[in-house]
Amino acid sequence: MAAESSLYLGDTLYYLVLFAILLLLVKHYAWGPVTDMMEKRRQQVIEDIDKAADDRKKAEVLANEREAQLKSSRQEATKILSTAKTNAEAAGKDILNQANLDAQGIRQKAKEDAAQAKTDALNEAQAQVADLSVLIAEKVIAKNLNAADQKDLVDQFIKGLDK
């Protein structure tokens, strides 16, 4: 049995030495590159996660900025519309007031022109009546008229008015 036991012990030592050599070979040729590859992959994953977090923060900041700009644009548009409406109302009132002033001026001018035309017509009528009176007086003085002559004189005078 001792021989069997030493066989087992020798085999065990042989297997342990082979295992140790195998471990050294695996560590030297496989474990190092695998560990390096795993470390590089771990670093890449960490960088990707950090980059994704940064990108998400940037996206949130941009979204907030765009929302603020949109709100500002809406307020500005409302302000512009309000200002335009106020300006349009003021311009409309100014135009209406100016039109009323112009119409009032035109009415006043028309009244003045009508009064002047009336005065001119009366003056002209007075002048014509005076001229007619002088003509009639001249003719009456130049000749003593009987009824037939007076009728002829009036007829001639009326014919003279038509010319």
TrEMBL record:
Q: Name one GO molecular function term.
A: proton-transporting ATP synthase activity, rotational mechanism
| Localisation | Cell membrane; Endomembrane system
Kindly give the membrane topology term recorded for this protein.
Answer: Single-pass membrane protein
Q: What is its main location?
A: membrane
> Which InterPro entries does this one have?
ATP_synth_b/b'su_bac/chlpt, ATP_synth_F0_bsu_bac, ATP_synthase_B_chain
The domain of life is: Bacteria
Q: Where exactly are the transmembrane stretches of this chain?
A: 12-32
Q: Which Pfam families match?
A: ATP-synt_B (PF00430)
Q: How does it assemble?
A: F-type ATPases have 2 components, F(1) - the catalytic core - and F(0) - the membrane proton channel. F(1) has five subunits: alpha(3), beta(3), gamma(1), delta(1), epsilon(1). F(0) has three main subunits: a(1), b(2) and c(10-14). The alpha and beta chains form an alternating ring which encloses part of the gamma chain. F(1) is attached to F(0) by a central stalk formed by the gamma and epsilon chains, while a peripheral stalk is formed by the delta and b chains.
Give the family per the record.
Answer: Belongs to the ATPase B chain family.
Q: What is this protein called?
A: ATP synthase subunit b
- Organism for this UniProt entry: Lactobacillus psittaci DSM 15354
